[in-house]
Amino acid sequence: MSTATVETGVRRTARLIWRERSAYAFLAPGLILFSIFTVFSLGFAFYLTFREWNILEPEKPFIGLQNYRDMIGDEDFRRSVINTFYFTGASVPLGMSVGLGVALLLNQPLRGRTVLRTLYFLPVVTPFVVAAIVWKWLYNGDFGPINYYLLKTHLISEPLLWLSDKNLAMPAVVLMSVWTSVGFSMVVYLAALQGVPAELYESARIDGAGAWARFRYVTLPMLAPSTLFLMVMGIIGSFQVFTQIYIMTSGGPVNRTSTMVYYIYESAFKFYEMGYASTLAYALFVLLLVFTVIQLRLYRRADL
What we know:
single chain, 304 residues, mainly alpha, MetI-like fold, 0% strand
């Protein structure tokens, strides 16, 4: 490509920008904020992954790929990855399934269904901090209502230490997270259900399809885009779970609820290892990217 051609392209671009200068002026504040707090932050975080960057130490030496090697051999990090997969594999399908069931129920002509929809959606707009504090009180081993009613109904013989037992802590956090996510799944599925043409159900009835057959061959295929959306958003959100872990368990007991984001938080703000924390954050990014691509490809194949 000749120099004259390049100069002509630059002048043409400059003229187009000048002609649309008012639009760029309106976009400038958002672009500046995006550049500083997203683009620059991502670049600087990637730069930190190659350095031993302790905010308390004046020296920030270049260490190459040492942070990545440390991450691969870090037993606590592997434990946090396992915990994150456990949380995701339990909370996302359960939240979507319950949300779908509630949506199917509240899509029927029931009396007071508007009030019921509002009640089911309230946990979604409840701040996570408030919800986590309330559920921590519910799980309290000494005076929590859950233990009280389980004891009264003789389902248990002694109080359960929900958030202190290594076998119960993560299921307890999962249950709380499902409670907060069901309302969102319900709303998405309700919108999708109301968009299913009634003619499809009528044709299925004429062909002799029962309720289960209509649900399987009509409802579920029509809900596929909404299911993909909820699955992708659910996995992204669950991989970034932090608030309920921080408030309810602080990663315990014995790291059984320490998730990837919580471990990143500890590395950065407890041990002040910003370089290592940035490395962990990029590992989380890669995992989320891989899962999202896999889900999109599976959906496209199923759609074909």
